Amino acid sequence: MKNYLDKNWKNSMRVKFDYNNMMQEFIGEEGFTKEEIDACMPLAKKSFDLLNSSRGTGMVGWTELPYNQDEVVKDINAYAEEVKGKFEYFVVLGIGGSALGPIAAFQALKHLHYNDLPKEKRGGPKFYVEDNIDPERMSALFDVIEPEKTLFNVVSKSGATSETMAQYLIIFDVLKKKLGKDLGEHIVCTTSKDSGNLIKIAKEENYKCFYIPDGVGGRFSELCPVGLLSLAILDIDICEILEGAKFMDEICQKADFTNPALMFAVTEYLAMQKGRNISVMMPYSDGLKFMSDWYAQLWAESLGKFNSSGVSVGQTPVKALGVTDQHSQVQLYVEGPSDKVVTFLNVERFRTTVEIPHGLEQFPDVSFLSGHTLNELIQTEQFSTAYALSTHGKMNNEIILPEINAFTLGEYLFMLELATGYAGGMLDVNTYNQPGVEAGKNATYAIFNKKGYEEKKKELLNAPKKKSDYIC
Ligand code: PA5
Prior knowledge:
The protein has helices spanning 7-12, 24-27, 34-54, 70-83, 100-109, 119-122, 135-144, 162-179, 197-205, 225-233, 238-251, 260-273, 291-303, 330-335, 364-367, 374-391, 406-427, 435-447, 454-461; strands at 16-18, 89-93, 126-130, 150-156, 187-191, 208-211, 278-283, 305-306, 312-313, 316-319, 340-347, 396-401. The chain is built from 19 helices and twelve strands. The protein folds into two domains: 3-55 and 242-427, Glucose-6-phosphate isomerase like protein, domain 1 (Rossmann fold, 3-Layer(aba) Sandwich), CATH 3.40.50.10490; 85-234, 3-Layer(aba) Sandwich (Rossmann fold). The chain binds 5-phosphoarabinonic acid. 5-phosphoarabinonic acid binds at residues 95-98, 156-158, 161, 164, 217-219, 301, 434, 437.
């Protein structure tokens, strides 16, 4: 029986949110009182009810992904089985929500040096996610893959994103030169079923396709084929990640203090009201390193915008890594302005234990480490950093994963998606649009003379020219 079908195992894998160090009792007057939290609960409940009543409608389709993908999962698993052993490399082409989830989940669930492992230990294709369009990076990719042994997954919901479509044109050209008309087996598309150019291209070329549901925006898409296909090809049980998400959804059924996603939203919302406009996500785990990139997009792109009264709101996410950034940013976090909340992402049990051996007894300042483990050291350093922040009155909290596995990852992703939905309601923004991103996209289209952007082009040509006085 799969672990995730066992109730006791699931309970032992429960992801928790600890906000003790946001409270006055722990950090002094900079923190919240219980009364302040209580006073925020009616607004939180309103937002909770709004999200609940929108589930599965409009752009809130993501809430149903743990429940409505039986056929999708079958199709993905069948495809993963079909391509197993056929390719040496698997490359995702996509950006934003089409890339950050796959990058983060790969880092969390596969060996930390996966691509460097010998083939027999890897057990699957080497994996690359090419999100950026830096020409040096694209050309470097072709130095490490052999296109004729590569499966490319072109991921774009809109099927119109310049970066991804430019990459598609490049790989299509390379494959055509190498393989002629047999290139079709080397490309799979993950896109909208009936809108955008990518689906039209895929139909014309007869590529295998997986679909991004209409109600699932890029940054909420890791639990649909955008994320699931890569995981299945990397031999991860995709049912487990969906079960984890479902479990978190069950935990978050009430608009009260038992709901970790709601309490995350409430405490961050209150923190913003007190001028904490920066949200630092700091995993103490290399496996979770890119979970902060995924969170940064989710939190920034969903919440950073004008609210319905035209007021700019949002919290700037900052990515950090424990313990690495203790030697870089933590000085600022402890003694700098009280403008942030630091969220530690902690793992209770690492997948391995590394002992620190005895030796150098003549150097007591070194040998005190002996007999301990790196596991103890990293956890102690996290505790000590939280303590330093708290004694300086700096808000911090913890998201705790008992272990890193597909189940706890599903919980974490779903918890923060729910938290973002709740926070969006509380801040009174449209959580699911990104007009600020569109503005930049449109300017690029105009400069590249894309049809329909003629007015934008005129606007850009009339924009003030840069002065050399200000360039030195
Ligand atoms: O969250 C979002 O909607 C965006 O970040 C998109 O994921 C990103 O712009 C890529 O869009 P698309 O999937 O349409 O290529």
